[in-house]
Write a structure and sequence with these properties.
about 170 residues, four-stranded parallel β-sheet, globular, alpha/beta, about 30% helix, 4 helices
Protein backbone atom coordinates (compact mmCIF):
# COMPACT_ATOMS: atom_id res chain seq x y z
CA UNK A 1 0.00 0.00 0.00
CA UNK A 2 1.33 3.42 -0.99
CA UNK A 3 0.87 6.18 1.52
CA UNK A 4 0.19 9.54 -0.01
CA UNK A 5 1.84 12.15 2.19
CA UNK A 6 3.20 14.75 -0.19
CA UNK A 7 1.99 17.94 -1.85
CA UNK A 8 2.65 18.30 -5.56
CA UNK A 9 3.09 21.83 -6.92
CA UNK A 10 2.57 22.32 -10.68
CA UNK A 11 2.47 25.41 -12.83
CA UNK A 12 4.32 27.57 -15.30
CA UNK A 13 7.64 27.66 -13.44
CA UNK A 14 8.79 30.50 -15.69
CA UNK A 15 5.77 32.77 -16.03
CA UNK A 16 4.44 32.25 -12.50
CA UNK A 17 7.72 31.84 -10.64
CA UNK A 18 6.74 34.68 -8.29
CA UNK A 19 3.66 32.81 -7.07
CA UNK A 20 5.38 29.42 -6.87
CA UNK A 21 8.42 30.91 -5.11
CA UNK A 22 6.10 32.52 -2.57
CA UNK A 23 4.64 29.11 -1.66
CA UNK A 24 8.14 27.71 -1.12
CA UNK A 25 9.28 30.79 0.78
CA UNK A 26 6.34 30.42 3.17
CA UNK A 27 7.06 26.70 3.53
CA UNK A 28 10.73 27.29 4.32
CA UNK A 29 10.19 30.31 6.58
CA UNK A 30 9.80 28.25 9.75
CA UNK A 31 7.58 30.85 11.40
CA UNK A 32 4.48 31.08 9.21
CA UNK A 33 3.10 27.66 10.14
CA UNK A 34 2.69 26.88 6.45
CA UNK A 35 3.99 23.41 5.85
CA UNK A 36 3.74 20.70 3.26
CA UNK A 37 5.93 17.78 2.25
CA UNK A 38 7.14 18.62 -1.25
CA UNK A 39 6.68 15.81 -3.79
CA UNK A 40 9.47 17.28 -5.93
CA UNK A 41 12.02 16.21 -3.33
CA UNK A 42 11.17 12.57 -4.11
CA UNK A 43 12.74 12.15 -7.57
CA UNK A 44 14.67 14.39 -9.92
CA UNK A 45 14.34 14.88 -13.64
CA UNK A 46 16.54 17.23 -15.59
CA UNK A 47 15.42 19.50 -18.40
CA UNK A 48 17.77 17.56 -20.67
CA UNK A 49 15.91 14.29 -20.01
CA UNK A 50 13.50 12.88 -22.56
CA UNK A 51 9.91 14.04 -22.13
CA UNK A 52 8.85 10.46 -21.40
CA UNK A 53 11.51 10.14 -18.68
CA UNK A 54 10.36 13.39 -17.10
CA UNK A 55 6.72 12.24 -17.21
CA UNK A 56 7.72 8.98 -15.50
CA UNK A 57 9.34 11.03 -12.72
CA UNK A 58 6.26 13.26 -12.48
CA UNK A 59 4.04 10.16 -12.17
CA UNK A 60 6.19 8.83 -9.29
CA UNK A 61 5.79 12.14 -7.49
CA UNK A 62 2.05 12.20 -8.10
CA UNK A 63 1.71 8.63 -6.83
CA UNK A 64 3.12 9.78 -3.47
CA UNK A 65 0.97 12.89 -3.27
CA UNK A 66 -2.21 13.51 -1.32
CA UNK A 67 -2.69 17.04 -2.68
CA UNK A 68 -2.13 18.43 -6.16
CA UNK A 69 -1.70 22.20 -6.38
CA UNK A 70 -1.80 23.90 -9.77
CA UNK A 71 -0.78 27.54 -10.00
CA UNK A 72 -2.62 29.10 -12.94
CA UNK A 73 -1.35 32.23 -14.65
CA UNK A 74 -1.53 33.96 -17.99
CA UNK A 75 0.18 31.21 -20.02
CA UNK A 76 -0.65 28.00 -18.17
CA UNK A 77 -3.10 26.71 -20.79
CA UNK A 78 -0.78 27.59 -23.67
CA UNK A 79 2.34 25.75 -22.52
CA UNK A 80 3.53 23.03 -24.89
CA UNK A 81 6.64 21.63 -23.20
CA UNK A 82 6.45 17.90 -22.63
CA UNK A 83 4.51 16.89 -25.71
CA UNK A 84 6.10 14.15 -27.79
CA UNK A 85 5.35 16.43 -30.75
CA UNK A 86 8.46 18.39 -29.77
CA UNK A 87 10.74 15.42 -29.07
CA UNK A 88 13.52 14.49 -31.48
CA UNK A 89 12.70 10.81 -30.91
CA UNK A 90 9.28 11.12 -32.57
CA UNK A 91 9.27 9.69 -36.08
CA UNK A 92 7.05 12.14 -37.98
CA UNK A 93 6.37 9.62 -40.76
CA UNK A 94 5.09 6.82 -38.53
CA UNK A 95 4.10 8.85 -35.44
CA UNK A 96 6.03 6.40 -33.29
CA UNK A 97 8.83 6.86 -30.80
CA UNK A 98 12.26 5.84 -32.09
CA UNK A 99 13.14 4.76 -28.54
CA UNK A 100 10.15 2.43 -28.23
CA UNK A 101 8.09 4.50 -25.81
CA UNK A 102 4.41 5.23 -26.27
CA UNK A 103 3.63 8.60 -27.85
CA UNK A 104 1.95 11.12 -25.54
CA UNK A 105 1.07 14.45 -27.07
CA UNK A 106 0.00 16.03 -23.78
CA UNK A 107 2.19 18.78 -22.38
CA UNK A 108 3.49 18.46 -18.82
CA UNK A 109 0.69 20.54 -17.30
CA UNK A 110 -2.10 18.57 -19.00
CA UNK A 111 -0.36 15.31 -18.09
CA UNK A 112 -0.03 16.31 -14.43
CA UNK A 113 -3.63 17.54 -14.21
CA UNK A 114 -5.09 14.42 -15.79
CA UNK A 115 -2.96 12.07 -13.67
CA UNK A 116 -3.93 13.93 -10.48
CA UNK A 117 -7.60 13.71 -11.40
CA UNK A 118 -7.29 9.99 -12.24
CA UNK A 119 -5.60 9.38 -8.87
CA UNK A 120 -8.54 10.90 -7.04
CA UNK A 121 -6.30 13.08 -4.87
CA UNK A 122 -7.30 16.47 -3.50
CA UNK A 123 -6.96 19.16 -6.15
CA UNK A 124 -6.30 22.84 -5.45
CA UNK A 125 -6.12 25.41 -8.23
CA UNK A 126 -4.47 28.68 -7.24
CA UNK A 127 -4.83 31.64 -9.59
CA UNK A 128 -1.96 34.12 -9.79
CA UNK A 129 -4.62 36.84 -9.87
CA UNK A 130 -7.03 38.64 -7.58
CA UNK A 131 -9.91 36.69 -9.16
CA UNK A 132 -10.59 33.13 -10.23
CA UNK A 133 -10.48 32.90 -14.02
CA UNK A 134 -11.57 29.35 -14.83
CA UNK A 135 -11.11 29.99 -18.54
CA UNK A 136 -7.33 30.12 -17.86
CA UNK A 137 -7.43 26.72 -16.09
CA UNK A 138 -6.73 23.54 -18.08
CA UNK A 139 -10.00 21.98 -19.21
CA UNK A 140 -9.50 18.80 -17.18
CA UNK A 141 -9.57 20.74 -13.88
CA UNK A 142 -11.86 23.63 -14.75
CA UNK A 143 -14.76 22.18 -12.73
CA UNK A 144 -12.74 20.05 -10.30
CA UNK A 145 -11.27 20.81 -6.90
CA UNK A 146 -10.92 24.00 -4.90
CA UNK A 147 -10.27 27.18 -6.89
CA UNK A 148 -8.78 30.18 -5.07
CA UNK A 149 -7.37 33.56 -6.08
CA UNK A 150 -3.87 34.08 -4.66
CA UNK A 151 -4.06 37.87 -4.43
CA UNK A 152 -6.33 40.04 -2.31
CA UNK A 153 -6.06 43.81 -1.94
CA UNK A 154 -2.87 43.78 -4.03
CA UNK A 155 -1.07 41.32 -1.72
CA UNK A 156 -0.63 37.56 -1.44
CA UNK A 157 -3.67 36.14 0.36
CA UNK A 158 -1.80 33.94 2.81
CA UNK A 159 -4.86 32.82 4.79
CA UNK A 160 -6.87 31.71 1.74
CA UNK A 161 -3.91 29.95 0.13
CA UNK A 162 -2.96 28.15 3.35
CA UNK A 163 -6.56 27.05 3.95
CA UNK A 164 -6.90 25.77 0.36
CA UNK A 165 -3.66 23.78 0.44
CA UNK A 166 -3.98 22.36 3.94
CA UNK A 167 -7.69 21.65 3.56
Amino acid sequence: MTYRTKTYIAGDWTGDSDAISTLYRWKNSGYLNFDFVDAHELTQARDTSLNCSIKKSLKERLDASKTFVLVVGANTKDLRAGSCSYCNSLNSWTSTCARGYSVDRRNYIDYECEKAKEAGIRIVVLYNYSNVYRDKCPDSLRCTGTHVAMISDGRWDYASIKKAIEG
